[in-house]
């Protein structure tokens, strides 16, 4: 009996060493932590329950037979984050470069299956050289097994991918299929084809980080949702993000004890929007002043900056915030902003997070590139996302709500539950400059002073449309509110809507424009 215990102890010790002390030292030299160190930081102390620690591959091709490591390139199992149950896996780069084969796949699929059945989030820490070359088609098929489970779990349990090293080739598609991708700056990268292939095919030279680093994916591609300066910060972001999400789609997000009075008024909001309606302001200030003081977690903050999306809290309850950003492209909607907003509203709807929208947009961005790029089908996604969402929805027209953008940004017709407007709201089919050219064309042509005609028209037009009262008169706006009272108004509205029930027609699935 004693020998049996000893044998298990020895095997476990071996598993804990991953690829061995030398490889661990190399990992540290690269500024990276090991899979087990990462899990220790991510999970509540002592909560990790490992599965498959002794699994090894059964492949003899290309000399792989001699290189067997218990656990085989991934550490997986269950644990708790701030007391909440989660499933986890962490690829171990010290074992054959974290390369992905049948055993790694079996272990990841096992936790994916158990997580889906138990209704708990899955967090994957990625650090891998990709498909294990020696396993050939076995490793390609093994990826397929993970992908199909990513899709099965999509919209049922939160799936979060953290990229902490290489993630190349088709391997990128597992993170891309999950709900959120978080990258660590400088030490992680993602690309389908690397710099060498790109150089051979296109002649263009680009470095690994330029091509697939956190900077590229957080500013240009929109592939990553959050970026952290180092691994610790990346793992902390997972904890923060989970704090806004439920365990699964049948659950409500956790409520935290509020540290901010629900009836707090903020007089600064009354002067936040500049008198000159062409002057920008930072909508993040507005969001931060209205939400609970414990922080707004902005998602994709450096990509499509003309829209701001993220999670906040109102009286301790999670809310998804969507806002136009007048400080960037005047808050105009374009292709990327449409993708950003529509994806976020669908995430909120999936996880029972109410959506609060702050509108200040002059409309969709005019441009040949936008039209050729398909702004029609991308913009349609905003409408689709809002119209299909059945969670509580509240909109506040802060300033401009012009043309198609008025309808798209959570208008009453898209089943928004409560529409508020600030006194600074401007709701019209188009701006006065465009309207005058259509309605006064002949007059302008004949006038000795066309500018005077335009000026007079603009004055009249602004008086008629650049206020919220016509919309309030017609019931398109439920209430014109003081900016300073926005927080208590939203909190009371959300309290009423908490028990909202709304159903969509039964169908296999809708066909969101893409
Ligand atoms: C087997 C691999 C491996 C792989 C790395 N290793 N990638 N073994 N299959 N895919 C091994 C290396 O041989 C090496 O072993 C050890 O891991 C560490 O790798 P290094 O190259 O020494 O590390 P580093 O210099 O940091 O470079 C890391 C790397 C590089 C950038 C990830 O290893 C690399 O380019 N690997 C291949 C990446 C790739 O193209 N993967 C396939 C993607 S296609 P030794 O014993 O020599 O130290 C794909 C298809 C998926 O994944 C399809 C899904 C549908």
Write up this protein:
Helix 4 (102-118) packs parallel to helix 5 (137-153), helix 12 packs parallel to helix 14 (375-388) and helix 16 (432-439) packs across helix 18. This protein is of the alpha/beta class and 514 residues long. The protein folds into 3 domains: 2-242, 2-enoyl-CoA Hydratase, Chain A, domain 1 (Alpha-Beta Complex), CATH 3.90.226; 267-429 and 467-497, Alpha-Beta Complex (2-enoyl-CoA Hydratase, Chain A, domain 1), CATH 3.90.226; 432-465, no CATH class. It is elongated. 39% of the residues lie in helices and 17% in strands. It has helices at 2-16, 21-29, 35-42, 102-118, 137-153, 173-177, 195-202, 208-212, 214-221, 231-242, 283-290, 335-350, 368-372, 375-388, 404-408, 432-439, 441-446, 450-465, 469-473, 486-497; strands at 49-51, 74-81, 84-91, 122-126, 159-163, 166-168, 180-184, 189-191, 226-228, 297-299, 307-314, 317-324, 355-361, 393-402, 418-421, 426-428, 479-480. Bound molecules: hexanoyl-coenzyme A. Hexanoyl-coenzyme A is lined by residues 96-97, 99, 129-133, 140, 143, 166, 168-171.
In short:
The protein has 514 residues and is an alpha/beta fold. It contains 20 helices and 17 strands. It has helices at residues 2-16, 21-29, 35-42, 102-118, 137-153, 173-177, 195-202, 208-212, 214-221, 231-242, 283-290, 335-350, 368-372, 375-388, 404-408, 432-439, 441-446, 450-465, 469-473, 486-497, and strands spanning 49-51, 74-81, 84-91, 122-126, 159-163, 166-168, 180-184, 189-191, 226-228, 297-299, 307-314, 317-324, 355-361, 393-402, 418-421, 426-428, 479-480.
């Amino acid at each position: 009996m004693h020998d049996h215990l000893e044998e298990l102890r020895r095997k476990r010790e071996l598993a804990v060493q991953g690829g061995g002390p030398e490889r661990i030292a190399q990992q540290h030299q690269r500024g990276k932590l090991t899979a087990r160190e990462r899990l220790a930081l991510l999970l509540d102390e002592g909560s990790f329950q490992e599965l498959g620690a002794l699994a090894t591959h059964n492949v003899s091709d290309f000399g792989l037979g001699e290189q067997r490591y218990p656990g085989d390139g991934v550490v997986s199992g269950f644990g708790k984050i701030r007391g909440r149950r989660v499933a986890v896996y962490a690829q171990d780069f010290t074992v054959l470069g974290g390369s992905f084969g049948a055993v790694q796949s079996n272990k990841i699929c096992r936790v994916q299956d158990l997580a889906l059945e138990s209704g708990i989030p899955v967090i994957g820490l990625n650090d891998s050289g990709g498909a294990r070359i020696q396993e050939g088609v076995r490793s390609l098929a093994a990826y397929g097994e993970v992908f199909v489970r990513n899709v099965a779990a999509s919209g049922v349990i939160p799936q979060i991918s953290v990229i902490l090293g290489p993630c190349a080739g088709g391997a990128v598609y597992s993170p891309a299929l999950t709900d959120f991708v978080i990258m660590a700056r400088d030490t992680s990268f993602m690309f389908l084809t690397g710099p060498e292939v790109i150089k051979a095919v296109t002649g263009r030279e680009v470095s690994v980080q330029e091509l697939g680093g956190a900077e590229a994916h957080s500013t240009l591609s929109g592939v990553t949702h959050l970026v952290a300066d180092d691994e610790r910060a990346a793992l902390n972001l997972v904890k923060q993000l989970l704090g806004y999400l439920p365990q699964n789609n049948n659950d409500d997000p956790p409520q935290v004890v509020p540290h901010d009075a629900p009836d707090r008024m903020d007089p600064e909001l009354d002067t936040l929007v500049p008198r000159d309606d062409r002057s920008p302001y930072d909508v993040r200030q507005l969001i931060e002043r209205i939400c609970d003081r414990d922080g707004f977690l902005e998602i994709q903050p450096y990509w499509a900056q003309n829209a701001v999306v993220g999670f906040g809290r109102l009286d301790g309850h999670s809310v998804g915030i969507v806002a136009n950003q007048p400080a960037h492209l005047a808050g105009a909607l374009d292709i990327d902003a449409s993708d950003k907003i529509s994806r976020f509203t669908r995430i909120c709807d999936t996880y029972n997070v109410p959506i609060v929208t702050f509108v200040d947009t002059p409309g969709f961005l005019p441009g040949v590139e936008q039209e050729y790029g398909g702004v029609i089908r991308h913009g349609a996604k905003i409408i689709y996302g809002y119209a299909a969402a059945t969670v509580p929805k509240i909109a506040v027209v802060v300033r401009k709500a012009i043309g198609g953008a008025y309808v798209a940004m959570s208008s009453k017709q898209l089943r928004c539950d409560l529409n508020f407007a600030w006194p600074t709201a401007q709701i019209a089919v188009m701006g006065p400059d465009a309207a005058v050219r259509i309605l006064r064309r002949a007059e302008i042509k004949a006038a000795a002073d066309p500018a005077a005609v335009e000026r007079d028209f603009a004055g009249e037009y602004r008086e008629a449309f650049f206020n919220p009262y016509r919309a309030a008169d017609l019931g398109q706006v439920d209430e014109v509110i003081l900016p300073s009272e926005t927080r208590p108004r939203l909190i009371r509205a959300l309290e009423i809507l908490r028990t909202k029930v709304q159903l969509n027609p039964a169908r296999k699935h809708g066909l969101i424009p893409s």
